[in-house]
UniProtKB/TrEMBL annotation:
<dbReference type="GO" id="GO:0071111">
    <property type="term" value="F:cyclic-guanylate-specific phosphodiesterase activity"/>
</dbReference>
<dbReference type="InterPro" id="IPR001633">
    <property type="entry name" value="EAL_dom"/>
</dbReference>
<protein>
    <submittedName>
        <fullName>EAL domain-containing protein</fullName>
    </submittedName>
</protein>
<dbReference type="InterPro" id="IPR050706">
    <property type="entry name" value="Cyclic-di-GMP_PDE-like"/>
</dbReference>
<dbReference type="InterPro" id="IPR011006">
    <property type="entry name" value="CheY-like_superfamily"/>
</dbReference>
<dbReference type="Pfam" id="PF00563">
    <property type="entry name" value="EAL"/>
</dbReference>
<dbReference type="InterPro" id="IPR035919">
    <property type="entry name" value="EAL_sf"/>
</dbReference>
<dbReference type="GO" id="GO:0000160">
    <property type="term" value="P:phosphorelay signal transduction system"/>
</dbReference>
<dbReference type="InterPro" id="IPR001789">
    <property type="entry name" value="Sig_transdc_resp-reg_receiver"/>
</dbReference>
Length: 444
């Protein structure tokens, strides 16, 4: 079975895993080039105009642009923009579309009259017909209309846009420094529910890091983890582990014994005193189902002997492994059986559109069958469509995780949601004990 599974993954190598899903005004006009280090001349910075009557929103966007080495000038209305265009020509204009779009319409007409040749980036409610109407209007004005951005704008979306348009300053680096964020206690941890596909109830949660920046807003790992050192990764892993254990203790006291999963880099698995941390911060309740450490198959395969040695002490404190990105790491069946694996994750590259793609659905089924052969729970990650969820359920996938069920959320929001569901849920019918000859028990 494992050999067959590897064959399927080789066929799927070209499938993009994708991403899902959702966090001081810079100097005004672009300055002349200034001398850099050793007498060199620094390259000119790109110039972008922002048209938005909401000063706080505009300043947050300007901070994101500044982090990528771009100058921004803010305008509250179209009349002042016209004066700005007479002084300087930006490479790109961000235009906020509000209400019925009257101001956006005025700005687009002014840009058309000025024969503006730069890009125009509309920003507004996702899927808004007003935004689409403004985009078509801009096209009629012969403007270079970019694909609209939804609100709120994420720093990663801005970063991708600047890279696509070749506007980011060379070597501008990550948006923020994770080491500095850790020192300033700007990292917090959110929790995404994992749903039992048979019982249709929450089966656990996974921990995700978020960085709350005073200027850039709420950032996801992709927006602050680039360039993180091994020391930073270790510090972040320890903080995530302690936060998850404290949350598990809180859940347990509320009568919600959830198993929490924490993404664990190999440096954390091999170097953190995990058993001691679990004993110090974890729930003491006997019904606590324990802790999961998410590790990629490739990382385990590259450090197999060390992982096997460390794993011996994990089960004693109720800690098990969840294999992420399975199918890309080369572990043998014997290797898998020798490790304390509780979950095998079906990669989002195979889950997305598995309802309509035969190759993907076959790969999903292969992982599910192998997991059950090993006695593991299977988790389909990246579930975004009801059709994919139904197909996974039909294949026997145990747990689903993804935006279809819920996005990562703060601990208090998760608890409020679970308590609200518990209060609103009707009494569960009792299951009748199957009588001799019954094919199965039935609900009363």
């Amino acid at each position: 079975m494992l050999k067959e599974l590897r064959t399927w993954f080789q066929m799927l190598d070209g499938i993009d895993a994708g991403t899902t899903g959702i966090d001081t005004i810079p100097s005004g006009l672009a300055a002349d080039t200034q001398p850099g280090a050793c007498g060199t001349v620094a390259p000119p910075r790109s110039l972008i105009f922002i048209v938005d009557p909401d000063a706080a929103s505009a300043q947050q966007l300007a901070a994101m642009l500044s982090a990528s080495g771009v100058d921004a000038v803010l305008f509250a209305k179209g009349e002042t923009l016209a004066a700005g265009l007479r002084r300087s020509t930006p490479e790109l204009i961000f235009l906020d579309v509000r209400a019925q779009g009257e101001q956006a319409l005025d700005v687009l007409e002014r840009l058309g009259q000025a024969r503006f040749s730069g890009g125009v980036q509309l920003v507004g409610p996702q899927g808004s017909p007003v935004v689409e109407s403004m985009r078509r209007m801009g096209v009629r004005e012969a403007l270079n209309m970019l694909a609209p951005l939804g609100k709120p704008i994420s720093a990663s979306a801005v970063r991708r846009l600047l890279l696509d348009q070749k506007l980011a300053a060379p070597g501008s680096g990550p948006l923020v420094d994770v080491h500095d964020a850790l020192a300033r206690n700007q990292i917090e941890f959110w929790y995404q529910p994992k749903i039992d596909l048979k019982k249709r109830q929450i089966a656990g949660v996974e921990t995700f890091a978020r960085l709350r920046h005073p200027e850039l807003g709420l950032l996801r790992p992709a927006e602050f983890m680039t360039g993180a050192s091994e020391g930073d990764l270790l510090a972040l892993a320890e903080r995530a582990l302690i936060s998850a254990l404290k949350a598990a203790t809180h859940f347990s006291r509320l009568g919600i014994p959830l198993r929490l999963a924490v993404n664990m880099p190999m440096t954390g698995l091999l170097n953190l005193p995990i058993s001691e941390l679990v004993l110090a911060y974890g729930p003491k309740h006997h019904k606590w189902p324990g802790l999961l450490l998410d590790v990629t198959e490739a990382q385990i395969h590259q450090n197999l002997a060390e992982v096997q040695a460390v794993s011996r002490g994990l089960t004693a404190c109720g800690t098990y492994l969840a294999i992420d990105e399975f199918g890309h790491g080369g572990l043998s069946l014997a290797n898998l059986r020798a490790l304390p694996i509780a979950e095998l994750k079906v990669d989002r590259a195979f889950v997305g559109d598995c309802a309509v793609d035969l190759v993907k659905s076959t790969a999903c089924r292969s992982v599910i069958d192998l997991a059950h052969l090993l006695g593991c729970v299977t988790v389909g990650i990246g579930v975004e469509k009801a059709a994919d969820m139904i197909v996974l359920q039909g294949m026997g996938c145990d747990v689903g995780q993804g935006f279809f069920f819920g996005q990562p959320m703060p601990e208090d929001v998760l608890i409020a949601s679970m308590l609200q569901r518990a209060v609103a849920a009707p009494p569960r019918p009792a299951m009748r004990v199957a009588a001799p000859g019954d094919a199965r028990a039935r609900w009363n």
